[in-house]
Design a protein that fits this description.
119 residues, mainly alpha, Rossmann fold, 3-stranded parallel β-sheet, 3 strands
Length: 119
């Protein structure tokens, strides 16, 4: 797995690193502390931004950046983990496909990994 670590307070390093990519997935929380420097750098460098947050304050902050993201022609999309995006997008898509539906029930099943017993 390839990764790069650097302090988010170092704006020059952040911009230098992100300018080499088309998209970034921020998995470093708490997102209330990491999202602003990452997303601002993405806006400056025209890099698409995704994260796995479920923090409502982060979603609210991104609303204030929507016009700038459109102007920059990048995607700023928090919550791509299990939390919000998969379920809400499925609900929205389902409602468009079945406008007369009144209920949606979602169910999820995880996969348990098995370990081989040692002799």
């Amino acid at each position: 797995m390839h990764y790069i670590a650097f302090p988010l307070e170092d704006t020059e390093a952040l911009d230098r690193v992100l300018s080499e990519f088309d998209i970034v997935l921020n998995c470093a929380g708490p997102f209330s502390q990491t999202v602003r420097p990452m997303a601002e750098s993405c806006l400056r460098n025209k890099v698409h931004y995704l994260d796995i947050t479920g923090e409502i304050g982060v979603f609210e902050w991104f609303v204030t950046k929507n016009a700038e993201a459109k102007e920059t022609n990048i995607v700023l999309l928090p919550g791509v983990g299990f939390d919000v995006v998969p379920t809400d997008c499925l609900a929205f898509f389902s409602k468009k496909q079945l406008p007369d539906a009144t209920h949606l029930e979602l169910a999820f099943q995880g996969v348990q990994q098995c370990q081989k017993a040692r002799p």
